[in-house]
Design a protein that fits this description.
alpha+beta, five-stranded mixed beta sheet
Length: 514
Amino acid sequence: MAAAEKALVRHKPKIGDTRPAPPPASGDPPSGGPGGSADGSADGAGEGEPRRRRRRRGRGGGQASADGPDTALDAEAVERRRGRQRNGRPVGRYLMCVHVGDGTTQIAVLEGRMLIEHYVAREDDSQIHGNVYLGRVQNVLPGMEAAFLDIGTPKNAVLYRGDVQYDAEDLEEGGPARIEEILRARQSLICQVTKNPIGHKGARLTQEVSLPGRFVVLIPNSSTYGISKRLPDDERKRLRAVLDQVKPENHGLIVRTAAAEATTGELQRDVGHLVRRWEQIEALARRSQAPALLYREPTMAVRVIREEFNPSYRGVVIDDHGLYEEVRDYVTSIAPELSERVEFYDPETEALPLLERHHVAEQLHKALDRKVWLPSGGSLIIERTEALTVIDVNTGRNVGRSSLEETVYRNNLEAAEEIAHQLRLRDIGGIIVIDFIDMELKRNRDDLMRVFRDALARDKTRTQVFEVSDLGLVQMTRKRIGEGLLESMSSVCPTCDGRGVLLDSRVREAVERS
């Protein structure tokens, strides 16, 4: 094979590669994806190149390479990682369904048969969360303690004072630095998107870049050092000792929950890929002019699998053959013991579409309704506004059997569980106010808050809940990253402009005459 052809193969884009740059120049270090391919290339680059698909069917750590699983894994560890099976079929609590349509990809996560999460990915530039840009400061607003940056998107992105990194020695005066002392117009900055643009608001940025891998998250130029609190104490102690060996100089690390039982070699390889990726980002920033995209997060399907997929999933079912092969190759490279759980659902031979086969479509239809029925006959009314979301709890047809206090208590407990489920399914963020039915006994109110917090703990999105107010309301916040389920699957009515009402024709004529 000629040298040019070898170079082409070496820099061929693969699943998980995330940097949308040209092939690296000579001397640039190679880059890898989240799971560990060291064939540095751009996500989406080389579209005209011949595509080679790999099919690896090895089980449990076989065919290990320098970028593959650790060869030191023994058979017992591999079998444990593979998860439980029954009658030759994987057993797990969750199932992921991926449907590829015209211009969109839907990802549904089911717990048993119940839909608990749903994501919609579009083939446009609106979903840029996690991307790293070289931005140019357009203007600095001291009164807002923020700066607006041009990152190449239709709307300028905003960088708040608290997300700016600077060296205190560069400032002439002591004390807290003001944003106009740190930033100036036309200055170029490396920044990362922490929130997608929503409505009329642009994206939100931070200068503290974080690069997620399979087992760790790299925080460049930081002293951050942490381990997931979801891991047991003995595992945290083991990982802390491993981190002392693999932590790179001048960079911070956060160990993810997925690092449970990961070997030193796997963690070291993951850290090495992330460090090389950051070096590529810095090298690209030095030879680029702002605004420029330095790093693109993988597709939604790959991101969700990177964050979520583990032995508790009985499978990932995909109805697009191209995406199926890419995801299977990606899972084979990072967790070969789980590759058999990636399945292809052929829509041409199956009687029903994928989302209908697993009853996702009907559950989505209910999730878009403002009214949610509870098992006992009560109901929730969920109203979205621009400022906050209001949830009203009603007893409805639930008349109880013994006393009013007992009926209200049981109804509120059901509502607390369902509200946590709906917040997660609908991806509702921001300020949320819940009007539970008033209860006289303090112990019942305490039980309600305990059950509600326990239900919210299953949600990986950060939440904060306050005690019942004097008006009987529960106030909470849930971190908002992007648009919710309703916004992702609907558009504003052009007739009423989203108000949901039409003015009477006589009133409209009177207003127009005046």
